[in-house]
Amino acid sequence: MTASMDETARSKSPPSERPGTATGHLLPPTLAAERLAGTVKPVTALTEAERDAMLQLMTASYDNVGRCSFEGDLAEKEWVILLHEREQGTLQGFSTLMRMEEVVDDQPLIAFFSGDTVISRSFWGETVLPRLWGRLVFALAEEIRDRPVYWFLICSGYKTYRFLPVFFRTFYPGHGQDHAAALRPILEVLARRKFPEEFDADHGVVRLHRATPLRTGLAEVTAQRLRDPHIAFFQQANPGHIRGDELACLAQVSLENLTAAGRRMLGLQGNGAP
User: Between 48-61 and 67-75, two packed helices, what is the crossing angle to 10 degrees?
Assistant: First the structure.
């Protein structure tokens, strides 16, 4: 696994049908119309200027974000995806990631947990983040041959939650996902380990001691958005999201579990399982 990845790299090679290493050709060439360029680096390689810019992005979108809590969250993470505006080079978004190892019912497993994630509002709709995230996580998962791999995340906003039904066939919890109930005990073990004092297993939510709710006016759940059954489910499952409550979620990281959009995210051909 190499320490960095660059979404701006262009390749004339056809996309691989199976992810190999993190530098393999998992994505189609970057579209010229895209306004963001993304890179992946170890958290330990971040400069002070990058950390300051990340904190500024967080405080612009979330309430109750402080330097100490931000740095504490960042310290436990291993990788960070940075999104820079192409023309000016300013940081416009980022997402952090860490690896967790656990045993559930005598089955060893790996989970990749997504931490702080934010994109400047003027760049909503850009696709670099999910594509680069997918390239990173699936490359890491490909190196793990002896145990299942999962994506573990917590969501206080519907925009993050919507990544699940867009990219994954089976996930928990979710609308139309009754068949995914087997994921619940795995999710609860991971959530209890990561948030031993803050995870409410009865409701499936994490109530952080220092919650950081989205600022008013950002990604509010309107009547029109509730027409989307996935957003309606999120609102029902996590009614306290407006206060910063986080819905704990899980999906298995495998090619078989990708939707057609998920396969396109990785630059794979076809809509079916490999």
Answer: 120
Nearest-angstrom CA–CA distance, 151 and 141: 10
Section 94-118 average pLDDT = 95
Pull the structure tokens for residue 35. 């306004």
Report CA torsion sign: 74, 91, 158, 136: negative
Q: Which amino acid is at 192?
A: R
CB 130 within 8 A of CB 230: no
Distance of CA 125 to the CA centre of its chain: 15
Q: Which CATH number fits domain 5-265: 3.40.50.1000, 3.40.630.30, 3.30.470.20, 3.40.50.720?
A: 3.40.630.30
Taking the C-alpha atoms of residue 225 and residue 169, their distance in angstroms, rounded to an integer, is 21
Strand partners, 108: 103
pLDDT in tens, 171-216: 999 999 999 999 999 999 999 999 999 999 999 999 988 777 666 6
Are 30 and 8 in contact by the 8 Å Cβ rule? The answer is: yes
0.70 exceeded by pTM: yes
**pLDDT tens, 124-183?**
888 899 999 999 999 999 999 899 999 999 998 888 899 999 999 999 999 999 999 999
- Interatomic CA distance for residues 13 and 5, integer angstroms: 17
